C-alpha cells in the first residue's frame, strides 16, 4: 500500500537561475559567432536564456520583496527604445506609439500606492 503524498514546497534558487540565464545567453552568443544566426542552437539558447533572465528578475531576493510595478516611466520607455535599437529594424511609428502609450498607462495603473505612515 502506498503512502499518500504530502505536498511540500520546492525552494527556487535565484542565484542558480541567474547562472543558468547567463550561461545560456553566453552559449547563444558563442553559437552565433561560430555557427551563425540561423543555427537552431543559437535560437534555442537565446530563447531559454531570455526566459530564465526574466524569471530571475521576477523572483524576489532574500533582502527585498518583488519589484512589481515600481519601474519608472522613463525606465520603461528607455527599455523599449533600447530593444528597438538593438533589433536594428525600421519600425513604423503608427505601431510603436500606441504600444508606448499602452505601456505607460499600464505602468501608471499598476504602480503600488505609497503607504501613508502614521505619525
Task: Describe the SSE topology.
Blueprint: H1 14-35, H2 40-58, H3 73-87, H4 93-110
Describe the structure.
This protein has 119 residues and is mainly alpha-helical. The chain folds into two domains: 12-63; 68-112, no CATH class. The protein is built from four helices and no strands. It has helices at residues 14-35, 40-58, 73-87, 93-110. Helix 1 packs antiparallel against helix 2 (40-58). The longest helix has 22 residues, at 14-35. The protein starts with 13 loop residues before the first helix and ends in a 9-residue tail after the last helix. The mean pLDDT is 77.
Summary tags:
4 helices, 2 domains, mainly alpha, flat, 62% helix, 119 residues
Oligomer: single chain
> What proportion of the residues form beta strands (DSSP E)?
under 5%
- By DSSP (H or I, 4+ residues per run), the number of helices equals 4
The average pLDDT value, as a whole number, equals: 77
Tally of extended strands? 0
Number of domains: 2
What class would the helix/strand composition place it in? mainly alpha
The run of helices and strands is: HHHH
Helix content: 55-70%
Low-confidence stretches: none
Q: What overall form do the CA principal axes indicate?
A: flat
Taking the alpha carbons of the first and last residues, their distance comes to 61 Å
Radius of gyration: 20 Å
Q: How would you characterize the largest beta sheet?
A: none
Amino acid at each position: 500500500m502506498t503512502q499518500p503524498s504530502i505536498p511540500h514546497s520546492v525552494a527556487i534558487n535565484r542565484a542558480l537561475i541567474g547562472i543558468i540565464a547567463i550561461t545560456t545567453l553566453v552559449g547563444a552568443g558563442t553559437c552565433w559567432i561560430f555557427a551563425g544566426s540561423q543555427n537552431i542552437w543559437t535560437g534555442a539558447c537565446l530563447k531559454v536564456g531570455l526566459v530564465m533572465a526574466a524569471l530571475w528578475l521576477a523572483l524576489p531576493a532574500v533582502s527585498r520583496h518583488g519589484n512589481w510595478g515600481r519601474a519608472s516611466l522613463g525606465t520603461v520607455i528607455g527599455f523599449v527604445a533600447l530593444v528597438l535599437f538593438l533589433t536594428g529594424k525600421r519600425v513604423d511609428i503608427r505601431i510603436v506609439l500606441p504600444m508606448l502609450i499602452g505601456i505607460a498607462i499600464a505602468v501608471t495603473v499598476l504602480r503600488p500606492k505609497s503607504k501613508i505612515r502614521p505619525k
